Every structure is written in structure tokens, then in C-alpha cells.
Amino acid sequence: MKNVDSMAIAEKAMSRIKKGAFLTVKNGDELNTMAIGWATIGYVWQRPILMVAVRDSRHTFKLMEKSSDFTVSVTLPNMNEKVMYCGTKSGRNVDKFKEIALKTVDSKQVRSPIIDAAGIHFECKIVFKSAMDPKFMAKDFEKIYPEKDYHTLYFGEIVECYEIDAGD
Fold first, then answer.
1. Dist. CA 69–CA 56, nearest whole Å
2. Are the beta carbons of 12 and 47 closer than 8 angstroms?
3. Fewer C-beta within 10 Å: the chain N or C terminus?
4. What is the reported pLDDT for 57?
5. Is the distance from CB of 162 to CB of 8 less than 8 angstroms?
6. Cα-flanking dihedrals φ and ψ of residue 100, to 5°?
7. Does an H or E element contain 13, and which?
8. Domain residues of the chain, as ranges?
């Protein structure tokens, strides 16, 4: 495991996130992970921030609303099938960890664990969240929300970022 500067590897991480990554959150004894393909990494409030978007219809939303943190595990292509599985199944109905033998490892600074796999891992503390208001959204984006299940944007201060090599 090698600590890395989150901004130095932001472009690399974002190119992989577009193909799918794990967003993991724990609240009490409840744990869930979902696939994400949208995120941003940058500086906001003079802090390194990873912003993720979670629809209010998702099981993960319920946990995110009660949690103070989350992790994002940007794994290597050998995990693509597991990422896709987590993007098609709901934690409401299925124990994804059990069904696909997905393991976690404790994080260094936050309660939510990371996925036990090679790749780039972000530990984030939620510093701001905002529910999308469609009246402020460009009209051509309405087709993305036929069910009117808009995203809530979670801004997580990146408190740890590290890379785990396949050989670790």
C-alpha cells in the first residue's frame, strides 16, 4: 500500500471511474456498496474533495444520509464484473458482498471500509451535501431523470488516498 497525492492521480482515477468504481458506505452494522461512473475530484473550500452523486431511490442513499463518510475504490479491470454486478443489484434485496465474494478491509481514518482489491482508494469525510433541484438543471438533462429520482451530491474531503498494487 502506497500513499499517493489525490490530486496527482486525479486524472488516472477519473478515467477509471468512468468505467465503474465502488462507492462503499457503512452506518452502524449496515454496509453497502454500489457502482458509480460519475464523480469529480478537485479543490473546494481549499481542500481536496471527491464529489459523488447518489440517486435518492438507491439503497445506498439511505446509508449516505446517516453516515459521515464514504470510500471510493477505483479497482483494476479484473474487478469489472463485480463492479457491474453491484451496479445492477440493490443492497435492499441482495447481500452483494456474499453473492460475489466481495471482501472489505478497514479504512485508515473513516468508518466505511474499502474494497479489498488492487487499485486507488479514497477515504472521504462528508463535508457538504446538496439535493439536486431540477429547476436549476439544464432542460436537456431531464431525459436522464424520467422517474424524477434526482441525485444528491455528496462532497467528501479526501482524508486518505492510497494505491494498492496487484502484488500487495
1. 17
2. no
3. C
4. 87
5. no
6. -120, 20
7. helix 10-17
8. 2-164
- Asked if 62 contacts 160 with a C-beta cutoff of 8 angstroms, the reply is no
Question: What 3-state DSSP class applies to 101?
Answer: coil
Pick the CATH number of 2-164 from 3.40.1400.10, 2.30.110.10, 3.60.40.10, 1.10.10.10: 2.30.110.10
At 130-142, the pLDDT tens digits run 999 999 999 999 9
Question: What is the pTM for the complete model shown?
Answer: 0.94
State which amino acid sits at residue 28. G
Distance CA 16, CA 74 (A): 7
Instruction: State the pLDDT at residue 3.
Output: 94
Nearest to 10 by CA among 74, 67, 55: 74
Residues 6+ apart with CB under 8 A from 118: 75, 76, 78, 164, 165, 166, 168
Percent of the chain with pLDDT strictly greater than 70: 99
**Rounded Cα–Cα distance for residues 71 and 124 (Å):** 6
Residue 98: count of CB within 10 angstroms of its CB: 8
Element (DSSP H or E) covering residue 155: strand 151-164
C-alpha grid cell for residue 49?
474533495
**How close are the terminal C-alpha atoms of the chain, in Å?**
7
| Cα gap 21→36, rounded to integer Å | 5
